[in-house]
Amino acid sequence: MFRSGLAQRIVVAFVLLTLVVAGSFAVGIVVTIHVVEERLLSDDLGGDLEALLKMDTIDEWRNKPQSNQLFYFTDGPAEFALPKDLANLSEGFHEIHLEDASYHAMVGVVEGRRYVLLQDQTDFERREQFVYAIVMVGFVISLISAGLLGWLLARRVLAPVIQLAHQVRHRDQQLTLAPPLAPDYAPDEVGQLAAAFDETLMQLREALKRERLFTSDVSHELRTPLMVLASSCELLQENPTLDTRSQRQVQRMGRATRDMRDLVETFLQLARAESGQISAPVATLTSVADELVAHWREPIETKGLVLEYISCEDSGRCYNAPFLRAVLGNLLRNAWHYSEGGCIRLTLTEWGFTVEDNGAGIPDALRETLFEPFVRGEPNRGDGLGLGLSLVKRICKHEHWDIQLWSVEPHGCRFEVTLCSPRVN
């Protein structure tokens, strides 16, 4: 969930490793001190208590305990009377607190009589706390040192990676002039990454070169035969010997030739636009819509459909003519292709246009992917490849136009294209 950088991960790894190692040592030291304390003091106090119990008189008990020791037992004189706080101690070694003082206690039971020897451990506790403080300070210093060492090491280790990322990020010059990166790095993992980037960049250069050559070839090679086809169709239409059926076929050939020419021009313009070499004619929405309505009215009405064209006052705004013609033409073609009855309505507005039909509509499962290449509304209808709406979306994205798809009740769909943003009063 927390996607930190590599340097931060290295620092965190160092700190965690130190936390485990230094923490284990610190806990081990504390436990060792506690165990050694209990073992040594238990043996020491046990020996002192045993020595006291071997004495014969109470006077010897008064003189033998050390200055930091107290001796009590049950059923004895008042000066040796066992305090209530010590009466319930079990036999063996204990650590107790009496009157804001800490003591080590050794309890022994002989013939039903309880003997308790106390030894003041205030100085020992002070030294013990000092040792614990040193352990804690060392633990904190270890963590800080690990973080600092991890940061320094991360800068050292990641310096080639940071340099490579900087070079890749600032490769905004022409791809053909960008020098290779691999010679600047050692033959390690970073060098392999730089070599892989160089190889990918070389493949991209080749792809761009092929695309430019293809664009140039299409520009020079396809336009000439299309012009020949268009002029031949015009000459055939002027031939008075052709019957009505032949004239209709020639007209279809002429329309197909114009459609192919417009499509070639659209792809060329789009390829040049993406390479920054665009110089396209412009036209208003009304002029392009009038042209396409005149072109599509006959095929639409021949299929038994009704074409409704609702125009508006021309705003005078000009747009890329081939792109606008391709978008509007593809939407009209789709409406004609997928409609078996009803009407097709083209409505112009001040900010764009809508194309609405009463066709089969768009299935909900395809609504999100309809503008992807090779996706078709009805796969069994016609012989299209599903590239029309993909081209429309690509053009709209390039020209910063907005296209929306809406359902129409009881069936059908409506495409709404916004060419410019409405003014806010």
UniProtKB/TrEMBL annotation:
It comes from the Bacteria. One of its GO terms (molecular function) is phosphorelay sensor kinase activity. Its EC number is 2.7.13.3. Pfam families: HAMP, HATPase_c, HisKA. SMART domains: HAMP, HATPase_c, HisKA. Residues 155-209 form the HAMP domain. The lineage of its organism: Bacteria, Pseudomonadati, Pseudomonadota, Gammaproteobacteria, Pseudomonadales. It comes from Azomonas agilis. PROSITE patterns: HAMP (PS50885), HIS_KIN (PS50109). GO terms for cellular component: plasma membrane. Coiled coil: none annotated. The chain crosses the membrane at residues 12-36, 130-154. This is histidine kinase. The keyword Transferase applies. It catalyses: ATP + protein L-histidine = ADP + protein N-phospho-L-histidine. It is an enzyme of class 2 (transferase).
